[in-house]
Design the sequence.
């Protein structure tokens, strides 16, 4: 079963629904599996076109973070080794990183690998790393026996990256924006520490800190407890009160959900339950944030500790 867990899945899902609806309305026989694979291939084929459009006006599509170069330099000064592994081609990466971190962005990274083909980069074992020649815009045929700073490498596997650098296990902290393509295999198979970049977190936290939301969420908790306490009383007054409170509770539940997004609610929670996306995120990511430079507020040796989760049988304050 394929999970739709990233932004590329949105047009993919819409296109799949539209084509299937067209076939159904026009009584066209089709194999659902073939349709799925064709739609997925068509979405993948859009990437080069998208790259060309973005490269024509990088500033229109990429938001510059002035803190990024300083944060990279902070890590370098602390003796940390930085590496970049991306599925994008070098020309696209170079334009984007030049905007984000300046003309000398490559000096921050000890290893740069493009066209990595993630998640296959983390699962395959036999795909060799190749050196990229910027002058000819092609890959050279020589065997890569070491990874040099400032050079660009294509493809390869995480096994080769680990063998050539010695970076293994929990000594590596790897950041990505996709729970499956970026984080799942490196944490489950290779023991890396992982961090997720979730852009939607900014809106989520702003909403959670809204005074009206806090008021409604706290009252919803208290109202639920009142309903639980009164529901076993058999008198008419209790039944009238219970019906009124249940209607108010239903209204509050919808209000606290739709305040995040009118159609889908929060990315992280559906009413009181975490979403599937959240459960996968918590499984594969040790930490998550909306922006990598948020870590600039901490020392490079800072340790983040998990918070104690509350189980159903444990007491929880209304205002916890």
Sequence:
């Amino acid at each position: 079963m394929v999970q739709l867990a990233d932004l590329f899945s949105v047009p993919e899902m819409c296109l799949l629904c539209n084509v299937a609806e067209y076939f159904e309305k026009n009584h066209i026989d089709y194999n659902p599996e073939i349709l799925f694979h064709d739609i997925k291939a068509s979405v993948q084929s859009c990437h080069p076109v998208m790259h060309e459009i973005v490269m024509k006006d990088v500033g229109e599509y990429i938001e510059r973070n002035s803190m990024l170069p300083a944060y990279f330099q902070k890590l370098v000064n602390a003796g940390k080794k930085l590496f970049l592994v991306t599925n994008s081609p070098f020309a696209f990466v170079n334009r984007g990183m030049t905007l984000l971190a300046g003309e000398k962005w490559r000096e921050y990274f000890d290893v740069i690998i493009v066209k990595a083909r993630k998640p296959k980069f983390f699962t395959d074992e036999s795909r060799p790393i190749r050196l990229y020649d910027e002058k000819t815009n092609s890959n050279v045929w020589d065997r890569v026996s070491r990874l040099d700073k400032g050079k660009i490498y294509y493809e390869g596997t995480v096994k080769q990256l680990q063998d050539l650098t010695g970076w293994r296990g929990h000594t590596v902290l790897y950041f990505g924006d996709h729970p499956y393509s970026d984080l799942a295999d490196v944490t489950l198979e290779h023991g890396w520490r992982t961090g997720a970049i979730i852009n939607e977190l900014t809106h989520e936290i702003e909403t959670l800190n809204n005074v009206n939301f806090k008021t409604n969420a706290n009252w919803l908790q208290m109202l639920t407890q009142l309903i639980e306490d009164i529901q076993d009383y058999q008198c008419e007054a209790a039944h009238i009160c219970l019906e009124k409170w249940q209607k108010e509770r239903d209204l509050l539940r919808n209000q606290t959900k739709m305040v995040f997004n009118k159609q889908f609610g929060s990315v992280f929670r559906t009413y009181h339950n975490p979403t599937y996306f959240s459960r996968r995120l918590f499984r594969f990511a040790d930490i998550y944030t909306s922006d990598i430079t948020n870590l600039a507020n901490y020392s490079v040796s800072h340790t983040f500790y998990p918070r104690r989760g509350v189980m159903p049988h444990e007491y929880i304050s209304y205002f916890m």
In short: The chain has a mean pLDDT of 89.
